[in-house]
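Input structure tokens:
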């Protein structure tokens, strides 16, 4: 081969080789299509996760807010119901006490007139045969008996008026004074019962239980005995003595069937779980 031609050939080959190497250095390799798709999917998945996570947090926050609002609403309803129940219980107590007071007032009036008449007649009869007494002595004896009756009646009436006026401390003190001074008076059972009522209304349930129990023990045939046993059961229930309250209320119907107290006892029993 001609040396000049060979030299030229090698120069072309060397130049081509240099150009190829330069191309390999300056031209970046083509990205793998599969890797590109994986990277794109990864980016999209991350974006979806971020959006979904934010949406879940938002929904959870909304649910928490809704639950809190529902709790507040239910609490409000519970408070309204509790206040309504307490008002209803107070209304029932006041209504029952008012009816009982009216009946007692009629009973007190009848007893007072009977006691005053009987005492005056007895005094007159005892004074008539006595020597030297005459009409003036009989009148004096009758007047003394009447004043004694009036004193007891006035004491009871004053305590009873305090009870009607809602002055329960005065009513309690007055009924106690009456019972201490007149333990065997015709109105002693009434005074004992109303003493228990005064304690019950003021939520002194322990003393109310003692007062109502005394009515049943000392005056089992009294017209106040059924009501006293009924209120005894009420007071026991207020002190969470549920078993004792159920037993007492059941006994009201057994001992005093057909009475209003028996009917009320059965109604209360139905409401006790």
């Amino acid at each position: 081969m001609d040396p000049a031609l060979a030299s030229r050939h090698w120069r072309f080959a060397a130049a081509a080789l240099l150009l190829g190497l330069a191309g390999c250095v300056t031209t970046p390799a083509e990205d793998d299509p599969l890797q590109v798709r994986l990277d794109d999917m990864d980016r999209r998945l991350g974006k979806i996760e971020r959006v979904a996570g934010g949406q879940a947090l938002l929904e959870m926050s909304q649910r928490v807010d809704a639950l809190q609002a529902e709790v507040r609403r239910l609490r409000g309803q519970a408070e309204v119901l509790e206040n309504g129940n307490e008002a209803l219980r107070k209304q029932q107590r006041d209504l029952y006490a008012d009816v009982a007071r009216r009946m007692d007032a009629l009973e007190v009036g009848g007893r007072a007139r009977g006691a005053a008449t009987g005492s005056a007649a007895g005094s007159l009869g005892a004074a008539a045969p006595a020597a030297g007494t005459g009409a003036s002595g009989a009148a004096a004896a009758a007047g003394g008996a009447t004043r004694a009756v009036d004193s007891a009646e006035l004491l009871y009436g004053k305590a009873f008026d305090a009870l009607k006026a809602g002055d329960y401390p005065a009513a309690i003190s007055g009924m106690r004074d009456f019972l201490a001074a007149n333990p065997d008076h015709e109105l002693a059972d009434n005074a004992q019962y109303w003493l228990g009522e005064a304690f019950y209304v003021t939520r002194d349930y322990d003393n109310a239980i003692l007062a109502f129990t005394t009515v049943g023990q000392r005056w089992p045939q009294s017209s106040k005995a059924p009501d006293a046993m009924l209120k005894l059961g009420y007071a026991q229930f207020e002190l969470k003595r549920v078993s004792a309250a159920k037993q007492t209320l059941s006994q009201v119907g057994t001992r005093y069937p057909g009475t209003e107290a028996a009917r009320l006892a059965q109604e209360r029993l139905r409401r006790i779980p």
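Residues 80-167 form one domain. The chain has nine helices and no strands.
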